[in-house]
Write a structure and sequence with these properties.
alpha+beta; 2 strands
Length: 88
């Protein structure tokens, strides 16, 4: 049996709402909410946090999934011919 215990938690930080002007795809942009453990965020901090978010997003969401990379590099044709990947 699981028992739930009430817990009081106090967090200090800054919630930043970023409004995006436009997206390359032309889709309607939604605001991006970021949380930062700092308490006095300046405009320079929000710019730095946005750049850090973009870098992390690029790491977590590569432009092409690995199976697409194989198709782009022509590796699928090699596999279909019975050659191991990487051999010409």
């Amino acid at each position: 049996m699981t028992r739930l215990m009430p817990v009081e938690l106090e967090l200090q930080g800054t919630v930043i709402r970023l409004d995006i002007d436009h997206l390359p795809s032309g889709a309607t942009p939604k605001p991006v909410w970021l949380w930062w453990s700092g308490t006095d965020a300046s405009e320079a901090d929000s710019d730095r946090l946005w750049q850090a978010y973009l870098r992390r997003f690029d790491i977590d969401h590569p432009a092409a999934p690995p199976h697409r990379l194989k198709i782009k590099l022509g590796s699928v044709a090699k596999v279909d011919q019975g050659f191991p990947l990487g051999n010409a």
